[in-house]
Design brief:
Elements lengths: L1 H31 L14 H21 L3 H19 L5 H20 L10
Helix pairs in contact: 1-2, 1-4, 2-3, 3-4
Length: about 120
Amino acid sequence: MKRNVDIGLLVLRIGVSVLLLTHGFPKLMKLIEGNMDLVGDPIGVGSLASSILVILGEVVAPVLVLIGLKSRPSALVAAGTMAVAAFIVHNGDPIAQKEKALLFFAGFLAIALMGAGKFSVDKK
């Protein structure tokens, strides 16, 4: 049974990480091109700081989760980014607008709670 759990965690890690990277990578490219205002300032730290935090949450953290390196803290960073997206950026929007952010939030929160499993760099 433990092997099935480890395979399930691997599938979850790969799935949510790769899919979130499809949102984060274009933002990273825009930041590299010089666009310093990717997401506005939803949490009041300035648009550049917010953009950097989004890159950390949508690119760096998913890559670490994908390979299973420091998965729990990295998953918390990604989940936090998605919580801001769902509950602050899309606060007044209908559920259909925040659905993706909520699904990513749930997936990364599950990884933060369970860890990366055996098939990871950390191997715990």
